[in-house]
């Protein structure tokens, strides 16, 4: 399967996979992704039969196992050993299959607006017959009513219109094939096999996979947590800020210090942070807390700039300030963040004009020492 995908973020960050709902594509996550990039390398993909993942002549019927193995194949293709997985609705069924059959590929699992069994055979067969005969337009209005609250539809007409067009672009055969996969999936007797730390999310007004179904998942998956958001079925699109905050709380931590330590480790590396923590004394402990909380937890966590951009800015300022030790550390951090040696060179060349030749000369010598020993 040639799975259409997009990966964003720095290579040193842990991978987070987003899996879309039936009738949508990776665009459903557009507002959520920027809020997660300070923490994760985000991989989005179009589920088979959706978006850019449509293969002519292969129209189904599919199974959830088929759709889940597409994820494993994609991870293998990208050389990602394991990842956090977040799937919504159909994506949540894929997450359950992965949690049951391949927990070794999951760091943590988020299943949103989904159920162990969604709908009935009759309801899915009726839907397949309807769209096959009358096309996607025949069910678009009722779908949008299920996906979004009346308030969201009234106050966000632009986003609703985009979602409508996304749904109408859906390939009928691909959509029908995935309807069959959802129809045939039933994990109600397998949830106790899941060992991955799991968060269940749903919307308080979700008419598709309601609160009761989410509670069933949380009660039957060992140790699972439950979070109910003010939303209908596409909770990540309707309430992206709160959805992202819920993910960060679960995956990273709820305190500024926890979040700062997470980012600090992804940027500087575990070895550096472990050394710094080992050297913490009563005298410098407050300073270590300060930089973790404010520098890393408050500033580096802001979504306005990518981490590699923050690295480039930081390098230029450290050259101007002539802070050699910090510059050495942040050359390594920049490389961790995916900055190329050629880009570091250009930052130093720019500094030669605005910071002076001696500062640039010192920076070239320092950077060369780091690059000589750097291992990708």
Describe this structure in words.
With 376 residues, the protein is an alpha/beta fold. It has two domains: 5-251, 3-Layer(aba) Sandwich (Rossmann fold); 256-373, AhpD-like (Up-down Bundle). It contains 18 helices and seven strands. It has helices spanning 33-36, 64-77, 90-101, 121-134, 140-147, 150-155, 157-168, 172-184, 211-220, 235-238, 240-251, 256-268, 270-278, 285-299, 307-321, 324-336, 341-354, 357-373, and strands spanning 5-8, 15-19, 41-45, 83-88, 106-112, 198-203, 225-229. A seven-stranded mixed sheet has the order 1-3-2-4-5-6-7, sandwiched between helices. The longest helix has 17 residues, at 357-373. It is elongated and about 75 Å long. The relative contact order is 0.11. The model has no long low-confidence stretch (mean pLDDT 95).
Compact description:
This protein has 376 residues and is α/β, with parallel strands linked by helices. The chain has helices spanning 33-36, 64-77, 90-101, 121-134, 140-147, 150-155, 157-168, 172-184, 211-220, 235-238, 240-251, 256-268, 270-278, 285-299, 307-321, 324-336, 341-354, 357-373, and strands at 5-8, 15-19, 41-45, 83-88, 106-112, 198-203, 225-229. The protein has two domains: 5-251, Rossmann fold (3-Layer(aba) Sandwich); 256-373, AhpD-like.
